[in-house]
């Protein structure tokens, strides 16, 4: 029986730990540092997700067979390299390969070499040059992005020149995201439906997961500021088998080849955020880990053994696996957030009704920003819970998820009310 270590403390890590625990091959699942939810479904370990040396030592001391790295920050910092240098099996890309998410300009360069369809873009290291560029252009919608990691918040979708210039100053002059904004990428704004295609890659073989759609904007109708994601659902009906085939052929395979030719072979999750434009699918960005909250509904539907899958991927043996099995039902995840998110918010409020929600059929409450204080579950982050339900249709899964949402209360709790409505089930 295997011991597994999951690194991270969000909703994505909770669903990974929960799913790994279901494997008949797995004995113990450790989660570092985890949250109040992983404390129920796994064994929390009080080590920061970015303390790679201590985490590797823990894996050695506890006979960990497989380590799964959830969030992007430790991946970009090189945690996989640390584990591999000690001969430990770890699922996730190397530091050099994780630059696909860690640097938007590097990502664009790889896409250019791979001839992958994406938005036209321009890179700047000087705010004066960036502002001049915007001023001299025609009035067209633009997207301004911090080059480095900004927890999903370093992207401004701008309708006017004035908004774009304000975004440049916010990122580069006011240093809203610190060093992540020393370089920026300005892109043309793409129009269409957004969809997330997540694939497991072992360097050579690519296995796609069921497509999902995230909801980035804070409020109903896709209004308000960008967040890390306010909910997700799967399947996404417009992500047809034909579209998936096109994405694999035109986007994923060329990217994996380009990464190998670049000397940065990719192993881990390759997450393509796509815009389905009138000219076909175009890549908005790549992430190098499972999406959060997309991981919750996607893994809720996965019937195959996640431990076997991730172990095979980390050993370069994905081609030996049988085809993945999926629950044919739909899944909807609704994120409950703290008042004030994505800006500043108060934490430490006790959360009520978790037991009541847990008793509802086909529903699981995944914890993200929670912790235990004096034996009580309290909110400790901006995105607090991901209430995820299965249903025979998307509308039924949505109804069940919001039924569970109604059970749960804490001071300032809120959520979007329209998760999955884009699918018009």
Automatic annotation (TrEMBL):
Record keywords, A-Z: ATP-binding, Ligase, Manganese, Metal-binding, Nucleotide-binding, Purine biosynthesis
Example GO BP: purine nucleobase biosynthetic process
InterPro entries: ATP-grasp, ATP_grasp_subdomain_1, PreATP-grasp_dom_sf, PRibGlycinamid_synth_ATP-grasp, PRibGlycinamide_synth, PRibGlycinamide_synth_C-dom, PRibGlycinamide_synth_C_sf, PRibGlycinamide_synth_CS
Residue ranges of coiled coil: none
All residue ranges annotated as the ATP-grasp domain in the record: 108-315
GO terms, molecular function: ATP binding; metal ion binding; phosphoribosylamine-glycine ligase activity
Keyword Nucleotide-binding assigned: yes
Enzyme class: ligase
Catalytic activity, EC: 6.3.4.13
Cofactor(s) recorded in Swiss-Prot or TrEMBL: Mn(2+); Mg(2+)
SUPFAM superfamilies: Glutathione synthetase ATP-binding domain-like, PreATP-grasp domain, Rudiment single hybrid motif
Region feature (Disordered): 214-234
Catalytic activity: 5-phospho-beta-D-ribosylamine + glycine + ATP = N(1)-(5-phospho-beta-D-ribosyl)glycinamide + ADP + phosphate + H(+)
Associated pathway: Purine metabolism; IMP biosynthesis via de novo pathway; N(1)-(5-phospho-D-ribosyl)glycinamide from 5-phospho-alpha-D-ribose 1-diphosphate: step 2/2
Family designation: Belongs to the GARS family.
Protein name in the entry: Phosphoribosylamine--glycine ligase
Phylogenetic classification of the source organism: Bacteria, Pseudomonadati, Planctomycetota, Planctomycetia, Planctomycetales
């Amino acid at each position: 029986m295997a011991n597994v270590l999951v690194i991270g403390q969000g909703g994505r890590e909770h669903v990974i730990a929960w799913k790994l625990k279901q494997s008949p091959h797995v004995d113990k699942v450790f989660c570092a540092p985890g949250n109040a939810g992983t404390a129920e479904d796994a064994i929390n370990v009080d080590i920061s997700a970015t303390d790679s040396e201590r985490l590797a030592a823990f894996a050695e001391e506890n006979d960990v067979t497989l380590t799964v790295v959830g969030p992007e920050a430790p991946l970009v910092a090189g945690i996989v390299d640390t584990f591999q240098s000690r001969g430990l099996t770890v699922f996730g890309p190397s530091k050099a390969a994780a630059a696909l998410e860690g640097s938007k300009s590097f990502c664009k360069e790889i896409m250019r070499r791979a001839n992958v369809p994406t938005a036209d873009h321009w890179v700047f290291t000087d705010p004066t040059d960036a502002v001049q560029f915007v001023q001299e252009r025609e009035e067209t919608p633009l997207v301004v992005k911090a080059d480095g990691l900004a927890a999903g918040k370093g992207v401004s979708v701008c309708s006017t020149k004035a908004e774009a210039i304000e975004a440049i100053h916010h990122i580069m002059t006011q240093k809203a995201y610190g060093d992540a904004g020393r370089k920026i990428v300005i892109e043309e704004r793409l129009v269409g439906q957004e969809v997330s295609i997540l694939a497991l890659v072992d360097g050579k073989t690519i296995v796609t997961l069921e497509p999902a759609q995230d909801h980035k904007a804070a409020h109903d109708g896709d209004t308000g500021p960008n967040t890390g994601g306010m909910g997700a659902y799967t399947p996404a009906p417009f992500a047809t088998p034909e579209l998936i085939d096109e994405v694999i052929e035109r986007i994923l395979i060329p990217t994996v080849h380009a990464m190998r030719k670049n000397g940065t072979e990719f192993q881990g999750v390759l997450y393509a955020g796509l815009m389905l434009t009138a000219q076909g699918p175009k890549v908005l960005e790549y992430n190098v880990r499972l999406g959060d909250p997309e991981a919750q509904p996607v893994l809720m539907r996965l019937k195959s053994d996640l431990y076997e899958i991730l172990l095979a991927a980390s050993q370069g043996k994905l081609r030996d696996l049988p085809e993945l099995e999926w629950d044919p039902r739909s899944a909807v995840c609704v994120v409950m957030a703290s008042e004030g998110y994505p800006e500043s918010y108060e934490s430490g409020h006790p959360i009520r009704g978790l037991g009541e929600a847990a008793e509802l059929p086909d529903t699981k409450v995944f914890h993200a920003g929670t912790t235990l204080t004096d034996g009580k579950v309290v909110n400790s982050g901006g995105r607090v819970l991901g209430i995820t339900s299965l249903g025979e249709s998307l509308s039924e899964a949505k109804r069940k998820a919001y039924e569970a949402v109604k059970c749960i209360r804490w001071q300032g709790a809120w959520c979007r009310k329209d998760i999955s409505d884009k699918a018009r089930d």
